[in-house]
Amino acid sequence: MKEGPATADERRTVKVSKYLSRHLRHSPDRIGLALDANGWVEIDALLAAAAAHRFPITRAELDHVVAANDKQRFAVEDGRIRASQGHSVDVDLDLPPATPPAYLYHGTVAARLAAIRAEGLRPMNRHAVHLSPDRETATRVGARRGRPVVLSVDAGAMHREGHVFQVSANGVWLTAAVPPGFLRFPGPR
After folding, report:
1. Which of 90, 125, 132, 152 has the most CB within a 10 Å radius?
2. What CATH number was assigned to the domain covering residues 104-184?
């Protein structure tokens, strides 16, 4: 069943979410924000900066985007906001090491498989590799770039060999890299 066209409110929510992601994860300086060492910024400063750069956001809109985002991309605490993960700017999310489940999953597309087989999963322009706790989430992640391919990551074996894992507030598992030997590829080679 095909869903109907998005309402103006839904389109605005998506625009605000993308704006927040861009400026809280990648380019806070573009609108004059300075994130603290852990990626936090005062909500009032964010709203003022957005307004000054011709993208006014109300506090109600911000609260709605934080609460309604199905991926829980943002965290709010003590009058501050930050992106839960995915930063390309230098921040320390101050997440404790965590013991992962036996397997985690990574969604990608077929065009990337040769490089992944050779090099494993690397963080690219982010601070960590993002892994999903289930195949369904990994499938949605991979589908953003085309027909998804889901890789299984032997996180239990990685952990036993000393690889460090962290889990963000929204359930995304993070690790520095996944060597090829810990990956399970679907189908024939």
Report:
1. 132
2. 3.20.170.30
Cβ neighbours of residue 20 closer than 8 Å, sequence gap 6 or more:
46, 62, 65, 73, 74, 81, 83
Question: For the sheet containing 80-83, what is the strand order?
Answer: 41-42, 80-83, 74-77
Rounded Cα–Cα distance for residues 27 and 35 (Å): 10
The CATH architecture one would assign to domain 8-83 is Orthogonal Bundle (1.10)
Tell me which amino acid residue 181 is. G
**For the segment 113-147, what is each residue's pLDDT rounded down to a tens digit?**
999 999 999 998 888 999 999 999 999 989 988 99
Task: Output 110 or 88, whichever has higher pLDDT.
Answer: 110
Residue with the two structure tokens 């060492």: 37
Domain ranges for the chain: 8-83, 104-184
Residue 56 exposure: Cα atoms within 13 Å on the Cβ side: 1
